[in-house]
């Protein structure tokens, strides 16, 4: 077995392969000398250490003797330090880690070939049964077989440099420096306690700040001295040192496959995750554990390599999503600097979404309570049950039942199904219950089953529903979302074929430009000036009916590729008149509709706008565009922006994951100060509390959780032991306000023997 690369992942893989089968011949090629190393400290989690202990107690014992452990994280910003405890870190020097692994490999009989460049993987693959390519982020193996591995490498916008200080920080330290050139940050942690100790220090900043500060013209010695001067207070006036240190941009590596024939990628060659969640060495070591185990368990090498990737890929992808969230948070650090101090600290700690409000409360209840106090939570009140005011409407909590199309109307009239569906969610405790997209005309429907507000009969049917919500669930607000299908209309009900055109009974479609949604979709006609005026007036008439129907809030649907969204995206708006071209021009008609509705919608009632903050497609709406779109609607009187993404073009490539749309809402809120609703894979009350307390959103809209459990909000209150005004149980349901008792399995066991 051949291992290319003598970093921690390659060495540990070699040691495990040899230990599990001493008959194996395992050779490691490392082009550097044994005492050459880059970087300084390595952080490993308790989970990873547990795996090492189980797989190789000798390595674990050697590591245990070297570790520096600490629990606190210090966040220093604008001369204020906030400390959060209970986190649990273990670190040691990278050089010492390599020495331990070198010794273990030699003890086991692994051949270590230092200062030797390995032959290409393709050559080794003909002479060896297995080739493990652990040759790092710049993997020659990956590049030589790019067609097989399918690599994607993304270079990010911050520059950073690895340095060290010859003293030990007493906590993991984040320090923010606001300089004349821009914002810089320090990430520091101890990795040695010998003598005065030693710490890793990473200095990071946006590329434009790096250039403005002149770092692009400094050598290693000059950069090191300059960083020490900028962060002199954190360092106590002590110097920094480098080790062939250079300013680099982080690169996220993803591969569509990890193996090719009998060659397999491991560690940074296969995947990278940003250093701000301390994951590079951890992932490589865990890869080595999984690869060795799969080779032991599977009947042959092809089966083992497939099992290895099947086991590791979901774990790695989850880590990469968390690392990407953390990386992007630091890229956008300037947006958060004016947050209240404790909220800023909480936001930093929860940036990857792996640390949450509930998790942090268990680690450090005192710190978390101080953040809640600053947020304005009364004693015993979780953040999600604090009120929020939009114009003349005060919501009793921050939970919104997101709009969900039910496709169950007849001639646009909501019936008993809608009464029960929306009524149940109103009884379920949410602060705001939103209707599905309610269409402003018969031709503006998505499907024959969509609701409308273009007739008096429809308005009367909606009044029945709002009266129920206001009477039977007092304190619950109910909002209407008005929209027009545009080019995505005249389609089948969702369960019969989402976005597929009707087989018969179609109605003509209209859109900004004559572009079908899918190749088999109907081609819409391009709207004329007269057509635009007609549709604008349909929105106005629907808004008047919505007021008469008793709705408390109106949302204008400018997302998901429907008519108004179609004007906003450059992928769907190819007009050459005043309504196409620049973003300002593409905004013109949606703003005209908004203004016309705002003029007839009661002054005291709020209006929100739902947007798609990205099209998830090249050449489409960007996050920067979304900020400007939000600014424009806010300038015209929008009270909040409901931030969704995608569904604008059929060939989109969304980056799904937990709370995956929240970064867009976060950016709009913290760049503009406009209140936002966030939506998208928010599944737990812990997520809601975390996002609110971190200042990433003002309201959380949940869809599928409310389909799974109409009483999601009330159950969230019960599970948190909350019984206050933010989540009152209906009188008829009050007997169910406590979690039902479980069986006896959690009771104390009867004593069946005596201790002697």
Automatic annotation (TrEMBL):
Residues 384-717 form the NADH:flavin oxidoreductase/NADH oxidase N-terminal domain. Residues 727-756 are annotated as: Disordered. It holds the Pfam family FAD_binding_3. GO terms for molecular function: FAD binding; FMN binding; NADP binding; NADPH dehydrogenase activity. Residues 2-320 form the FAD-binding domain. PANTHER family: BLR3436 PROTEIN, NADPH DEHYDROGENASE C23G7.10C-RELATED. NCBIfam families: PRK08255.1. This is Bifunctional salicylyl-CoA 5-hydroxylase/oxidoreductase. It comes from Streptomyces alboniger.
């Amino acid at each position: 077995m051949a291992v290319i690369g003598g970093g921690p992942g390659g060495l540990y893989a070699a040691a495990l392969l040899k230990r599990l089968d001493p008959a194996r011949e395992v050779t490691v090629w490392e082009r550097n000398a044994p005492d050459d190393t880059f970087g300084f400290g390595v952080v490993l989690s308790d989970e990873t250490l547990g795996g090492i202990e189980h797989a190789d107690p000798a390595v674990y014992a050697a590591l245990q003797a070297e570790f520096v452990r600490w629990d606190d994280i210090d966040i220093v910003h604008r001369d204020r330090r906030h400390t959060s405890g209970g986190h649990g870190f273990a670190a040691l020097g990278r050089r010492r880690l390599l020495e331990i692994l070198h010794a273990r490999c030699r003890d086991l009989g692994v051949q270590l070939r230092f200062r030797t460049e390995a032959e290409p993987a393709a050559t080794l693959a003909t002479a060896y049964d297995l080739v493990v390519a652990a040759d790092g982020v710049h993997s020659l193996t990956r590049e030589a077989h790019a067609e097989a591995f399918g690599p994607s490498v993304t270079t990010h916008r911050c520059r950073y440099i690895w340095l060290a200080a010859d003293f030990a920080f007493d906590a993991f330290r984040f320090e923010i420096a606001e300089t004349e050139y821009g914002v810089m940050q320090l990430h520091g942690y101890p990795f040695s306690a010998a003598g005065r100790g030693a710490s890793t220090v990473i200095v990071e900043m946006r590329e434009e700040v790096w250039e403005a500060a002149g770092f692009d013209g400094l050598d290693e010695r000059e950069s090191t001295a300059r960083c020490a001067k900028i962060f002199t207070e954190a360092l106590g006036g002590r110097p920094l040192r480098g080790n062939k240190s250079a300013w680099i941009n982080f690169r996220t590596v993803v591969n569509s496959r990890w193996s090719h024939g009998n060659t397999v990628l491991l560690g940074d060659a296969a995947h990278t995750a940003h250093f701000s969640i301390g994951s590079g060495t951890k992932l490589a070591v865990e890869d080595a554990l999984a690869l060795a185990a799969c080779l032991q368990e599977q009947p042959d090498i092809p089966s083992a390599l497939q099992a290895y990737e099947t086991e590791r890929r979901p774990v790695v992808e989850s880590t990469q999503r968390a690392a990407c969230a953390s990386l992007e948070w630091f890229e956008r650090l300037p947006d958060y600097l004016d947050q209240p101090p404790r909220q800023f600290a909480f936001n930093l700690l929860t940036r990857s979404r792996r640390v949450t409000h509930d998790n942090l409360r268990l680690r450090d209840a005192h710190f978390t309570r101080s953040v809640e106090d600053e947020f304005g939570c009364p004693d015993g009140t979780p953040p999600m049950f604090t009120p929020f005011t939009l114009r003349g409407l005060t919501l009793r909590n921050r939970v919104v039942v997101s709009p969900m199309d039910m496709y169950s109307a007849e001639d646009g009239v909501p019936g008993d199904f809608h009464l029960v569906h929306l009524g149940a969610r109103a009884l379920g405790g949410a602060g705001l219950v939103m209707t599905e997209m309610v269409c402003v005309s018969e031709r503006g429907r998505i499907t024959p089953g969509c609701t409308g507000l273009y007739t008096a009969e429809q308005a009367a049917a909606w009044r029945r529903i709002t009266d129920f919500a206001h009477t039977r669930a007092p304190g619950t607000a109910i909002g209407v979302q008005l929209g027009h299908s545009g080019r995505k209309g005249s389609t089948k009900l969702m369960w019969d074929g989402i976005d597929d055109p009707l087989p018969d009974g179609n109605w003509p479609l209209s859109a900004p430009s004559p572009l079908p949604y899918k190749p088999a979709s109907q081609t819409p006609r391009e709207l004329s000036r007269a057509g635009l005026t007609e549709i604008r007036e349909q929105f106005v008439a629907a808004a008047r009916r919505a007021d008469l129907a008793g709705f408390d809030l109106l949302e204008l649907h400018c997302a998901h590729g429907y008519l108004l969204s179609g004007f906003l995206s450059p992928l769907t708006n190819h007009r050459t008149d005043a309504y196409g071209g620049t973003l300002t021009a593409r905004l013109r008609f949606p703003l005209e509709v908004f203004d016309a509705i705002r003029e007839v919608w009661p002054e005291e009632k709020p209006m929100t706008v739902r947007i798609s903050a990205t099209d998830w497609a090249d050449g489409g709406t960007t996050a920067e565009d979304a900020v400007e779109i939000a600014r424009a609607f806010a300038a015209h009187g929008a009270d909040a922006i409901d931030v969704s993404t995608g569904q604008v073009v059929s060939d989109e490539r969304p980056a799904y994951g937990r709370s995956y749309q929240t970064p867009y809402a976060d950016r709009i809120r913290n760049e503009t100060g406009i209140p936002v609703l966030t939506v998208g894979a928010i599944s737990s009350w812990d997520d809601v509390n975390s996002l609110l307390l971190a200042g990433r959103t003002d309201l959380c809209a949940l869809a599928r959780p409310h389909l799974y459990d109409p009483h999601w909000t009330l159950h969230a209150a019960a599970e948190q032991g909350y019984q206050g005004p933010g989540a009152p149980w209906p009188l008829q349901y009050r007997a169910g306000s406590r979690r039902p008792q479980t069986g006896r399995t959690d009771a104390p066991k009867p004593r069946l023997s005596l201790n002697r």
